[in-house]
Structure formats: C-alpha cells, structure tokens
Amino acid sequence: MTALETRIYCHPPIPLADISPLEMLILTNVLECSETEEGLVLFTDFGPTNPVRVARSELVAAFRASAQNAEDPINIFIADRVLSLLSAGGNTVEDDAMIDIDLSEFPWQFAVKGIVARSTDMDEVTVVQWMNRPSQRLESFGASVSLITAKAIHHATSEDLLARFRLQDKALPPAASSAASPEDDSTLAGGAASDLFTVKEIETALCIWEAMLYFRGLHQDERPVPDNIVRMSEVWDAVGWQAMRSHVREIVPFALDVHDNVSEGLEEEGFTFDFDFAPALIETLLWSEDGAYREGEPKEFLKDVMVAVRRRRQDVVARTASGFNPASCQVD
User: Fold this and answer.
1) Cβ-based neighbours of 81, under 8 Å, separated by 6 or more
2) What is the rounded CA–CA span in Å between residue 80 and residue 325?
3) Taking 50 as the threshold, does the pLDDT of residue 185 lie above it?
4) What share of the chain is helix, strand, coil (3-state, %, to 5)?
5) What is the pLDDT of residues 61-119, one digit of tens each?
6) Among 48, 105, 180, 307, which residue's beta carbon has the most beta carbons within 10 A?
7) How many Cα neighbours within 13 Å face the side chain of 9?
C-alpha cells in the first residue's frame, strides 16, 4: 500500500527567545523545523513523528535547562518521566542510550499552546495540514486547520468545514425569493441563524464526537469500558454512523447546560472541557436507539459527571506515572 503523505505548515514562525530548551528538543524531533531570522518555522513533508527518539542525557539536560518553566504543560508531562531516566552514578552508557517518548497523550500542539501562553509577542499560531496518497482517490485525501491560542486549540477537518457549508447552503432562501434586493439580507441572516450551530456549539459537537470515537475504539479493542459504553457501541452498530452524528447534534444543548452547572467546579479543580468534561459526560449518559439520555434527578446526574471527571483524571495520572518507567523505555 502506498504510504499516506502528510504535510503540515505553521505560521507565524515562533520567536526563538520564547521557546524553552525542552520545547525545542521535542518540537524539532516531532516535526521538521528551520530557524529563520523571524524564529522557528514548524513544518513537515512527512507527517509528525511519534514516538520521538532522543538521547537520555539530551532529554535530562533540556529538562533541567527549562526548570524556570516548571508549570508549563510540557514540563509537567515530562516531569514524572525524567526521574526514571536519570542514570545512577553518571553511567556513560546509560547517558548515551536512546529513549522513545510516546506523545500520544501529549500531542505537539500542546507544546505550542504553552509557548503562545507565555509569549508577549505572539497571540496565535495557525496550523494547516493536508494529506493524500498518489492514487488521488476521494477517500485518500483531506485537510485540516487549527488555531492555537493561549486559551485553546481550535480544530476542524475539511469534512467538518464541508458539512458546515452544506448546512449554510440549506439555510439559504430559494433563489426566486432572494432576488428582490441584493442589499436586504435579513432573510438570509434569519434563516441561517435558525438552523446553524454557533462556533461554541460546533466545538462542543466535535468534542463530544471525539469522546464517542475514543470510547468506541476502546470497546472495539476489547478494553474494559462501562456498560453504558458497551450499549452505545451496540446502538452505533444498529443505527449506523449518520444516525450517531445526528445524536451528537441532539446532545449539544444538553451538554452545554450541564457544563454551565458544573463549570465552577471544573475551573476550581483545573479540568478542561475537551479532555475532561466531554468524555466524562459521554461516560455518564445512557443510550437507546433513540439517542442518549440521562437517568435520575438532574442534581444526581451532575454529581455523577463530576465523579467521572475526577476518576478519568486520576486514571490518566496513573497511566502517565506507570507508562514511562525504565522497564517500558526502549534502550539501544
């Protein structure tokens, strides 16, 4: 099979003074990068590398040199791993050993987000990605765009954008009725507003869909999942993908309402919408072929969601702490 070609280009270049040694080490191993007068240009013609392979001594040195950024996401991600990478007694062979760092739980975009959050000169980084196989068959190519700011990583695929355009097209008035006055767009605006999601609702739908795909993947891999996730997968198989995407649309208003009620607690405990709340919500909902639904009193459901959020974070921390130890490192 011909390999998938993936190209990524980021703009603007990142000022070198804004990049810590640890971020530089990770980014230049994940992507092809070039230094210019304006800064570090992030790009690749082959796709991001994961896991990245670095020398033990190089990783430890970069981590120590970035100690002033101890609260940055990448430092926190690496912190639990560096202790297991420190060689006892300065063993030269161990220092020169190569180590694989799995970034599946910490995509490179999070390192860029940390840089943008610290930078005094840069407000955002845009990422354009496109992929194809030389066959050029319809199913073999696509694209995506991301906007990385200090607040969030916004992402949409070409399929997401095309779906949005189709919704917008359906919201347009018939050609005959829209010809009265090219300057009077009140009908267009009203029609579009009545049928289209806001940006917030679209992002919510994408987060919910991502969580559903994640749990379905776990179940298909025969990993342990709650009974309601098993039921969700059964419904998925019965009604099909299009119906499940329609169910996502139905969940969005409910998800936003639940989030409004628990947002204060999420913020106080440092939880995020996409990686904490959305999966916990999906993990708490029940399923039938008519879609998702909650069980019990609203206050009890809110408590169950917060319990799921905290349990998921504890599980991630436990996996992170145990998933990168000397026994799991590949050493040449």
Assistant:
1) 101, 324
2) 9
3) no
4) 55, 15, 30
5) 999 999 888 888 888 888 877 666 655 445 545 657 888 888 888 889 999 999 999 99
6) 48
7) 3
pTM of the shown model: 0.50
Q: What Å distances lie between residue 275 and 1, 168, 215, 321, CA to CA? A: 34, 29, 13, 18
86 burial level (CB within 10 Å; 0-12, 13-18, 19+): middle
**Tens digits of residue pLDDT in 201-246:** 888 899 999 999 999 998 888 888 889 999 999 999 988 888 888 8
Region at 296 (left for phi over 0; alpha for psi -120 to 50; beta for the rest) = left
pLDDT band for position 5 (50/70/90)? confident
Query: How confident is the model over 239-287, as pLDDT tens digits?
Result: 888 888 888 988 998 999 999 998 888 888 888 888 889 999 999 999 9
**What CA–CA distances, in Å, run from 190 to 2, 5, 33, 173, 193?**
47, 42, 46, 10, 5
Show contacts of 288-297: CB within 8 Å, 24+ apart: 288/235, 289/235, 289/238, 289/239, 291/247, 291/250, 291/251, 292/232, 292/247, 292/250, 292/251, 294/254
Residue 244, both tokens: 């499940």
Q: Give whole-number Cα distances, 156 to 64, 130, 139, 320, in Å.
A: 36, 12, 17, 28
Judging by DSSP bridges, how do beta strands 40-44 and 5-11 pair with one another? antiparallel
Handedness of CA 133, 11, 34, 58 (dihedral sign): negative
Q: What count of residues does the chain have?
A: 332
Please report, as a single letter, which amino acid is at residue 317.
V
Gap between the Cα atoms of 181 and 177, Å rounded: 10
> What string of DSSP letters covers 30-94?
HSEEEE-SS-EEEEESS---SSEEEEHHHHHHHHHHTGGGTTSHHHHHHHHHHHHHSPGGG-HHH
- Asked if 132 and 141 count as a contact pair (C-beta separation under 8 A), the reply is yes
